[in-house]
Amino acid sequence: MGLSLLYVLKPQKDRALCSASHILLAMGTTPNMVTAAGLLMSVTAGLLAASGHLYAGISFFIIGACLDAVDGSFARACGLSSEFGRYFDSMCDRLSELVFITGTVAGGVPSSAFTVIVGSLFLLASRIYNHRKGLNSDAAMFGRPERLALLIAGLLSPAPYNTALFLVAGFLCLVSSTQAMASCIAAGKLKEKAAR
Question: Which of 87, 129, 162, 193 is deepest in the core (most CB within 10 A)?
C-alpha cells in the first residue's frame, strides 16, 4: 500500500524549509499566521473564480496551498507544534477548499466539483477519529497534494473530463478514509492482543 506524498516527502520538506522557518520566527511570524494567510489566499481565489477569473483564482489557490505546505514544517522546525495548530490547520485546509470550490462553481464550473469536498470531509473525519485513538493516518495513500492536483486538473479540463476528475478525487478520498479506519482497527486489535 502506497503512502501519500504528504507523508513520503515530509522529512525532506522539513529540512528544506528549516532555515526559512527560523527567519519567519525571527520576523515575529507564527505557524498559525501562515495558516491564516493561506486561508486568506484561498478566499481571494474563490472570489476571483466566482467573478469569472478562473485562472487567476487557481494561481491564488496554489499560493495558498504552498503556504499550507510551510506552516507544519515551520511549527516542527521551531518547536511550536500544538494540538490547536494541528486542528486549526486541518480546518483551514477544508475551509480553503470549500470557499475556492464554491467560487469556481459560482463562476461556472460543474457542481460535481463539490464531490472533492465531500471526500475530503470523510478523510478528515477518519483522521480525527484515529488521532483521538492515539493513532496516525499515514496509511492513507491519497492526501492533500494528490487531491488538489486532481482538483486543479479538473478545473483546467473541458467537460466531461472535469467531472470525471472531480469524481475520481472524491472516490480516492473515500478509499483513503477506509484505509485510515482499517489501520486504526488493526492497530486496536494488536493492542488488545498485547494486553492479554
Answer: 162
Write the DSSP string, 12-46: HHHHHHHHHHHHHHHTT--HHHHHHHHHHHHHHHH
Dist CA 177 CA 186 (whole Å):
14
CA–CA dist 13, 4 (Å, integer): 14
Predicted confidence (pLDDT) at residue 10 exceeds the cutoff of 80: no
Q: Kindly state the cell numbers that stand for 149.
A: 492536483
Angle between helices 161-195 and 114-132 (to 10 degrees): 10
pLDDT of residue 196: 64
Q: How many CB atoms lie within 10 A of CB 119?
A: 24
Residues 6+ apart with CB under 8 A from 97: 42, 116, 117, 120, 148, 151
Angle between helices 10-26 and 54-77 in degrees, nearest 10: 80
The 8 Å CB, 24+ separation contacts for 85-88 are: 85/31, 85/32, 85/35, 88/32, 88/35
Q: Please report, in angstroms and rounded to a whole number, the separation of the first and last CA atoms in the chain.
A: 29
The pLDDT value recorded for residue 4 is 62
Residue-level pLDDT at 34: 96
Helices (H), 51-80: 54-77
